[in-house]
Design a protein that fits this description.
Strand content: 15-25%
Number of helices: 8
Order of helices and strands: EHEHEHEHEHEEHEEHEH
Structural class: alpha/beta
Radius of gyration: 18 Å
Shape: globular
């Protein structure tokens, strides 16, 4: 099966492309590096020729509502319109657990993306997943200064490769609509995770101070609310693996 992967060169997309290839499918990465622009539609029609299914893991790095909503709305509509022209039979989108409870600017963008998919006319599946194990490191990378103010919140992190496996499995089947919430095996403190990332040498050493936030983010709004599929790799196991890689990697 020929499967297009929007965001195929990103963190999740690279795993999706690899797993599709291993399963005997033909992945078609949709990215600017491949000559495809999701915002303008440049290169999309040619790239989608013969594609049966699209997996959308495209992303934008912003916490601003206007930027996030603008990106996911425009990119989603452009992609789905091109899929309809190409006769794509199944559109699979990766979303995030709890975005209807925790209303940050970025999550408002993901909600818009889900709405665009529902209204797009191409049969669809949406998989909501919890934060990846890389999440605390990404937060630390974005925080300047000698002290890291990290939100005091609970998350249930999952390995990005396990999310990619679930997306590939969805893509091989029939459209399911909302496919359920996929989460990691264990609830963790984000503050504690950030401190462990620093101790493992995966982020700049500095004090981590809890940032107390009001509302559902502090009270578990990003956790799954019911039973559902769970990943196997714990944050501890991922950290040992990532820390070992960092220790043996050449340093410039």
């Amino acid at each position: 099966m020929k499967v297009a992967v929007a965001g195929g060169t990103g963190l999740t997309g690279r795993h999706v492309v690899e797993l599709l290839s291993r399963a005997g499918h033909e992945p078609v990465p949709l990215s600017r590096a491949a000559g495809v622009d999701l915002l303008t539609g440049s290169g999309l029609d040619a790239a989608l020729a013969g594609v049966e299914t699209t997996i959308d893991v495209s992303n934008v790095t912003t916490m601003k509502r206007e930027a996030a909503v603008g990106f996911f709305d425009r990119a989603g509509r452009t992609l789905l319109e091109a899929e309809a022209r190409a006769g794509v039979r199944h559109h699979v989108t990766l979303s995030i657990v709890g975005i209807d409870r925790v209303k940050t600017g970025y999550y408002q963008g993901k909600l818009r993306q889900e709405a665009v998919v529902r209204e797009g006319g191409v049969p669809w599946s949406v998989l909501r997943a919890t934060q990846f194990h890389e999440f605390p490191g990404q937060i630390l990378d974005r925080l300047p200064g000698p002290v890291a103010l990290v939100p005091a919140m609970k998350v249930q992190p999952i390995a990005v490769r396990e999310v990619a496996e679930a997306l590939v499995e969805l893509a091989a089947g029939e459209p399911k609509g909302m496919a359920g919430d996929l989460a990691g095996p264990r609830v963790e403190s984000l503050v504690d995770m950030a401190r462990r990332v620093i101790r493992a040498g995966l982020a700049r050493r500095r004090p981590v101070v809890p940032l107390w936030l009001p509302g559902p983010m502090r009270t578990g709004g990003l956790l799954p609310t019911g039973p559902g599929p769970r990943g196997a790799q714990t944050f501890d196991a991922w950290l040992a693996e990532a820390g070992g890689f960092a220790e043996h990697s050449p340093r410039g």
